[in-house]
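ingest -> validate -> predict -> emit
validate: passed (alphabet ok, no gaps, 495 aa)
predict: started
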Amino acid sequence: MSTPRGYCRGRGHCGPIVLLSVGALLLLLSPSSVGHASAFSGGARAATGGSSRPALLATQSRTRPSSFRLAAADETTASDDVNKSGGFGEKAPPSAPPAPSTTASSPSTAAAAAAATAESDLTSRLLAEAREIGECAALLFGHVTKPDGAASADGIVALCDDLDAVPSVRSPDRDELMTTTKIDLRSRAIRAARYEALNKLMRRDYDAYVATASFLSPSRIPRDELPNVQDVPYPDLPEATSAAAAAAAGESEEGQPLVADCTLDSKSFDDSPLDKLLLGIFRDLVTKNTGGVSSPKAGIEGLLEQGRTYMTQPGQTAEAQHAMVKNTLGGLMTPVLPPFYRIFMGGIVPQLGTDLDGKQFGPWFYAPWLTSVVTPTFFGFLVGPSRPNTRKDGQWGGLVVEKCKFLQESGCKGLCLHQCKLPAQEFFKEELGLDLTVSPNFVTQECQWSFGEVPLSPEEDPSFPTGCLVGCESRKAMASAYASGSGERPAVSCL
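emit:
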């Protein structure tokens, strides 16, 4: 290090300055002094304070060779002189604050630690999510692959117990929960496994299925989670009142026993814009196909009045009503959809000028299921809400109407039979190439549609009761119109 020229004019000053410079250089180069010493500039004090400098030099003198101790001691003396004199005659500046300790954690170190912790938490969470997904998938797959013979009532009860053991998710801070917990994945998997077990039991032994479902629903299994509800009793149904009304009414004008009315509360239907559009088109088609029969009433009530007026016309027949409904359904589907359905669902060869024209190779295996999935969207305007389910044979392709709008608002078994059930079955078989069985329940006003199932005639169907409903408005209108015996009575009946 070069020495300032102004300080070397007298030999008396050069020695201390040289020693001071050498001591300062040794302090800077010493590993133990990093962060504790500052370079001298303008005679300023060390950054760690004047009182700590001798102790630091003393500590270093113990760790250095003896040849350097003298220089360190001279530097200590010189440093004290400088501190006392204020830097060669000048007043000493105030002490600088102590330098921050190098052992404290820097912001970058804390951020790195936080990032590592977050990464570890994310990894643990992803592993837990993957483990839960795997367990739920294994649970469902195990029940799907079981043979039908393995399904039993005890196994279904065990699944109900497993579902009850799943804790309910009611955390106020759902962001802290796993995604699989938020969507109740385990509960969904158990419900799906239970549905599959019930379905297998129904395929193996339908009577055992009905007994099991009747015992567990609705206390353990909600009714809308059963694969099929055709023969499962409705819970808490006030049957006594309806049965008493039927018994008091006796027989109809045709001498047939009357059927009890539905005693459940009427359901209000909230029609969507699509439902209103389709209902308007359907009513216009009915007016056209009935020769101008119309009604000033709005909505489904107007449609039912049109159907009742047409049914009670003199000389009316069941066949004419069926033809009217089939023509109306064909018009609603437009000329495009029936041919498309016949080819891609019914498996019927179109007219191509070959020997195979009109030959049916279907219906294809997916036709019943796909039809049951699509139908609720475009049929709600007439029957109300419905959902896909399974048929009585345990196969896909079922559709259950929760409470039929047509039947509830009409209260007429004849309208149900001749302007819904029979013409719909004939239309699907004759025009679309797919069998259909429509099974209304007049006690609950539910209705099961089974696509791909060959229907029985009403006379052969044990689930279809004989006689008219107690409160049937059509029967009352016909009795009033033909009480005098004038005119030709319509050749229709409610069976």
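Strands lie at 386-390, 396-401, 436-440, 447-451.
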